Amino acid sequence: MVAVLLIIVPLGLAFAMPLFNFVSKRIAAYLPIAAMVCNLILSILLLPSVMENTRIVILGGLPPPLGIHLVAGPLGVGLSGLISLVGLAVSIYAWGYIKQGAQDKYHALYLLLLSGATGAVLTGDLFNLFVFYEILCISSYALVAYLGDRNGVESAVKYLIQGSVGSGLILVGIAILYGMFGTLNMAQIAIHIDNVDSPALFLALVLLVTGFGVEAAIFPLNAWLPDAHSSAPSSISAILSGIAIKVGIYAVARVLFTIFGVAVVFQYVLLLGLATLLIGEICAFSQDNIKRMLAYSSVGQVGLIVFAMCIATPDGVGAGLLQLVSHALSKAVLFLGVGYLVARSGSMSLSSLNGIGKRMPVVCFACVVAAFSLVGLPPFVGFAGKFLIVRAALAGKSIFFTVLIGIVFLATVVEGAYFFRMVQTLYFKDAKRQIEYKKVPASASIPIMALVVFIVALGVYPDVLLPYLKSAAADLLNKAGYIKEVLG
Amino acid sequence: MFHQSTYFVGCVGLMIVGLYTMLTKKNLIKVIIGLSLFETGIYLLLVVVGYIQGATAPIFSRTTGSPAEMVDPTPQALVLTAIVIGVAVLALALSLTIRLHEHYGTLNLRKIRGLKW
After folding, report:
1. Are B30 and B94 in contact (CB under 8 A)?
2. What global pTM score does this model have?
3. Regarding the domain delimited by B4-52+71-104, which CATH topology (the fold level of the hierarchy) does it fall under?
């Protein structure tokens, strides 16, 4: 039953925010930190026991095929741990960073976003997945427009319209599945789906993958991402890039592998992932605005994760999940760090950051580590992720995958080019004008450095994660095992 | 009265009208109206999925009613949830529209392009 607290604590605190606000205006910023510490501890405590056998949490007193239930498996609890880790870092950062506007509303929406993300990765009911996904999406639309400036509002409108059409398509997909099977339980649908062969089923698959693909920013559904991620406040960019798109990827993977499990489709999604990777990296290369560059780099990384997962072997999915962890940590560090670089230099243009590395050494060092990790240099966690992806893709010894891995390397070279350009700008160019030096507060440097420690530690000892990745991959791929665990 | 497939055609038609409106109109308010139409089509589709010809609403108002004479209540519960979500999205969209009008002085989407598409 403990797994319920992972959702209840942030959700409850979000709605209790006005009450706390009566007591003191200053409490608001501490609530997300408290909720995330609680979630992180719970996830770490739960993880060893759910590794052995998945726990089913029945909500509302009706057993699985009828009622809504949570599936606390290695994947769900592992992802909720990742969400709370990144969420904790970002909420400490936001404590010092968000100083304007209605702060209590910012923190309430932020808690809602995190509870939506946690709920989506834990639930075992298709419609419940949709509801949590909508909680995540609606709070992120509002948070992108939090500053109320021109770019923020415009990108939030774009994000909202594209996101709502995506959610509508998901709902149509759910309606089709319910009409065919009369159930919303993912395990129950997975049982019956093998006995039916109908074009409507394919339509449902396409609608669900397209709908969740909007949040995951899989090409050609990625138009909102560079605008939204670059116009949002930096703490929100970090959580959107680090967590929100990962929930989209999780939902796509759950639908593809656990519910449908049709091997024919994997190759098409794999090619879509590859296209996303190439287009994201090439667009990132041509950006001058540093936050837009990072946002396009997120598109590219999403492509790589989808590519790795759609290899559809346990090794491939495991490698994709490691890359997912690596991207969540690295991109959170980059957006959080760049947030202060941009705030100090007063412009998002890359050339305005010339030589800033000497003035803000801690933040720039963290950004460089995270950038190297994303490119895939050892000894950072990104190296382990990319290495495992290449190994998994070449394991089958097919020429098809060898060619595709060549394209992945090409994209990595492009990625390296723009990240090294960023490093060159930060350290090796002379500043055109004197920037007034103001120290970065500890509330920013401590969470950033903590995430950097994780990037390096996991890069040096990736073995720590491997057993978890293995059982998480099995959680996604082993359809019969999932059905057995849920329905007994 | 009608065959059940007629209802499906109507719902999908409404969704297509909504999508067409969203794709072709330049005024942001009209785009949001299109979104609303699209969502209404989906709500009706969900209700039709659980509809049984000649059955009544799943409420125990009459003592004679048996479950077999009632339509499936689950999709109706889903629609209620979806409508609530839709209201939240529409309210947020319209409040963002007000903000956008403050910044640009227009709702013509061809003129609102501060960011590159």
Report:
1. no
2. 0.93
3. Helix Hairpins (1.10.287)
Residue A462 domain-assigned? Answer: yes
Cα–Cα distance measured from residue A364 to residue A349, given in angstroms and rounded to the nearest whole number: 16
Q: Is B92 on the interface with A (CB under 8 A)?
A: yes
Dist. CA A24–CA A19, nearest whole Å: 9
Q: Which residues of B touch A211 (CB under 8 A)?
A: none
Range of the domain at A268: 264-468
Structure tokens at B30: 């009209």
Asked if A354 contacts A343 with a C-beta cutoff of 8 angstroms, the reply is: no
If 0-12 CB within 10 Å is exposed, 13-18 middle and 19+ buried, where does residue A456 land? middle
Cα separation, A482 vs A75, in Å, equals 12
Calculate the CA dihedral of residues A23, A24, A28, A30 and round it to 10 degrees: -100
The domain tally of chain A equals 1
Q: What are phi and psi of A56, to 5 degrees?
A: -100, 125
Q: What 8-state DSSP symbol labels residue A123?
A: B
User: How far is A394 from A376, CA to CA, in rounded Å?
Assistant: 18
CA pair distance B42, B12, nearest whole angstrom: 8
| Per-residue DSSP letter, A313 | S
Task: Report which residue type is found at A237.
Answer: S
Which pLDDT tens digits describe chain A residue by residue (488 residues)?
Answer: 788 889 999 999 999 998 988 888 888 889 999 999 999 999 999 988 888 888 888 887 787 778 888 888 889 999 999 999 999 999 999 988 888 878 889 999 999 999 999 999 999 899 999 999 999 999 999 999 998 888 899 999 999 999 999 999 999 999 999 988 888 888 889 888 888 888 888 999 999 999 999 998 888 888 889 899 989 999 999 999 999 999 999 999 999 998 888 888 888 999 999 999 999 999 999 988 899 999 999 999 999 999 999 988 889 999 999 999 999 999 999 999 999 888 888 888 888 888 888 888 888 999 999 999 999 888 899 999 999 999 998 987 888 888 999 999 999 999 999 999 999 888 888 776 666 667 788 888 899 999 999 999 999 998 888 888 888 888 888 888 888 888 87
Q: Mention every residue, 6+ apart, whose C-beta is less than 8 A from residue B2.
A: none
Assess B93–A contact: CB distance below 8 Å, yes or no.
yes
Residues of B in contact with A153 (CB under 8 A): 96, 99-100, 103
Mutate: best of A171, A207, A214, A222, partner B, most B CBs <10 A: A171
Taking CB atoms within 8 Å and a gap of at least 24, the contacts of A467-471 are: A467/A51, A468/A47, A468/A51, A468/A74, A468/A78, A469/A318, A469/A319, A469/A321, A469/A322, A470/A314, A470/A318, A471/A51, A471/A74
Say if the Cβ atoms of B42 and A175 lie within 8 Å: yes
Can you give the residue ranges of every domain in chain B? Answer: 4-52+71-104
Does residue A443 belong to any structural domain of this protein? yes
